[in-house]
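Lab channel / #folding
Pinned by the channel admin:
"Please post every new chain as: sequence first, then the structure tokens as a reply. Keep commentary short and put observations after the output so the thread stays searchable."

First post following the new format, from NK:
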Amino acid sequence: MSGKTVVLGGSGAMTSACVYDLYQTSDFDEIVVADADEKNSRRLVELIDDDRVTFEPVDATSTEDIVRALNGATYVVNGLPYQFEENVLDAIVEVGDLLGVDLNAFDFDEVLSRSDEFAESGCSLWFANGGLVSTIALGMVGCEEFEEVEDVNFYWGMWRLLTQTTAGLTDTVTYEHDPNVDERARWEDGEVINDLPPFSQKRIFEFPEPIGEQETYVISHPEPITFPKAPIAQEKNVDRIITRGVWHDEWTEYERTLHAMDAFDADSLDIEGGTVDPLEVAQTQVKRAGDERDAEWRSPEKLSSETEWTPQTVLSSEVTGTNAGETGTAIFHFTQPFPFFDGNDISMMREYGCYVGVPLSVTLQLMADGAVNKDGIFVTETSEFDVQRYFEEMEARGFELIEEQTPTQLTSTPR
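Reply from TO:
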């Protein structure tokens, strides 16, 4: 496993853990942190202190500059905000002969429609990567427990205070609650039913601590759209698929307040000769508080002084099916380690983001090792990757797979 890897947006809250894991576990000759944020990029490079890891400035608004950053690379990780997706895709095709993983999970049809173009340029891109790899893998192992599957429920337990955030995370959470977004969906009887309203499809679910039992609601994640493509979902005749999530109470109160004040559809206000968007004002304040809190890199034990728990995301699947006519439910949880950065001074959201960053590293290394050999653009369900190997790699890095089952005859040996 050799060659040059470029991590676009490599100093971000999610991608920093990818860079750190590549440094710890890969044999790549070069690992380039390509980012517009020179201060945090250089701090990450200094923390790692390895000659293979370097910083390269990049302007994500310019396809030509992304091409420049990718020249000479064998592998690419795209962790840039989704607004720059088209620039990234154009640059990858222009450079050619690249293997990569992509954190973005928006505009599925548009991105996947470029698969043939990627294949012709010798490129392979694992799209909708990061935490989605883990949830899809959890759904797959759940389906393996049954002869026939009725329901596959995915859960995202995203547990951090309102001010424990970054600009990108703030925009993402609010996007998922936007009533004008039509991407909240469920899959039922062979059809995708979308345009579900925010805070709908309520279901009580119990996560491991510190989250515990919570009301969960449908979120705009793509599992209901992509999981039906998984061979095991087709083999087990899955009837229904839905993805729900929960945020800390502070986030839930904030998003419900935005709904109550009609912020998503409010007109701009005229103030002292200018105009102000009420939603933008609220978002800016949350982002500013998050930026101020996350600016200082501290030791892990000092990261969360307000609570007895550290910010984290718990991913879960709940699969209901039958064996020999008996119905049962298999529940799997996937928890992240703390601290991930070996006790080094780091920021809160970089520790939090390892649930996304580490899967990016693991899946890229699977591709580099030939364990995933697909042309063009593909998603986890069509990657033909080894789910057990994926979990073994993640568990070796401190992640934990927890299984719960109701009494029933199981078709495989419990882990």
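NK: Residues 278-294 form the longest helix (17 residues).
TO: also worth noting, The chain is about 35% helix and 25% strand.
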